[in-house]
Write the structure tokens for this entry.
Amino acid sequence: MQCRVYRRCGGCSMLEQPYANQIRWKQAVLEKLFPKETVLPMLKDKNPDHYRHKIYATFGTNAQGIFLGLYGYHNHRLVNSMDCLIQHKKGNEILRTLCELANDFHLSVYQEDRRKGLLRHVYLRISSKDEKVMMVLVLGEKKFPGSKKLVKILLEKHPEIETVILNYNFRKTSIVLGEQERVVYGKGYLMDKIDGLSFRISSHSFYQVNPKQAYRLYQRAIELANLKKEMKVVDACSGTGTISLLLARHVQSVIGIELNPQAVFDANENKKVNQIQNVQFLQGRVEEVIPRHKIQADVLFLDPPRSGMGPCFMTYLDQLKIPKIIYISCDPNTQARDIQILKSHYSITVSQGVDMFPQTKNIENILVLERKRNEESRKSLISRIK
């Protein structure tokens, strides 16, 4: 693929590498981090272009006017990303239209040094089910002159946009979304489908960027867990309930635990929409929720943010003595760091990479960790076999 901003943009560091070489490199990373004999062949993306259904872009200005872009590699310069080769094509079209309208309406762009200006960022989410779009415009000022007219024209040009949200972020921060927002068109959320189940996505909810590979990721994680109908499962960092609800058909019960209240709300809505009865969602920190509700589990699924969980949580997890842990991570380095604490009592039985982010060095990985049997348990097992 030819990209006119390659090496200037901070996005696709492997774009010029043949896809087979990218997979070999990622496989080698996993084999270096985890026991080589446990690392299975990576699940490749059958279509590694235009796979991003989640798009963040920042407003900037140049000689031609207002544009949308990403920050450059190791710098704070905006690079035009409106023709990005990994972003969904429909998303790129909407970005271009939005900039044309912003120029026509003579809107101001937010300036970080002065903390002044209207347009800061845009966030697009595109459903894999029907390619409907949620658009979130992040603003640095409350007053938005001509907003109704701009949205009306945008919807005429792009009827696939199902909802438009104005989000207000007045803070000096690199975090894209602010805490205040207002729905100006539609319901304020998007619906998507995975494996026959419907999922509600709001502006603050986590949802994977690559839906087709996400389906393969969850399918493979469930397969590797070797679940049985009588099992009780905890889904830590459960988000909008995607993994929890997909697990429900395989086990007796699932408890999803999530810190983000909006995500828990969405998860409960997803539970209602899918009419699933054997899943419960609880809001709070895992290490507080589990003892408060006296939760027992045969298997724990863990899918944290890129930063991982850290030593305090992993020490607590070790103390729970859960027989099996399925640890899903979008950063195998923090994953490898976290499991060091578990190594005395757990063995890695499988490492399964999934190429969720083609053209980049990012890797999604599933680790299966099984509790080691102590000597007494081992002797008891041997005696029963005899």
User: Anything to note?
Assistant: Confidence is low (pLDDT under 50) at residues 374-382.
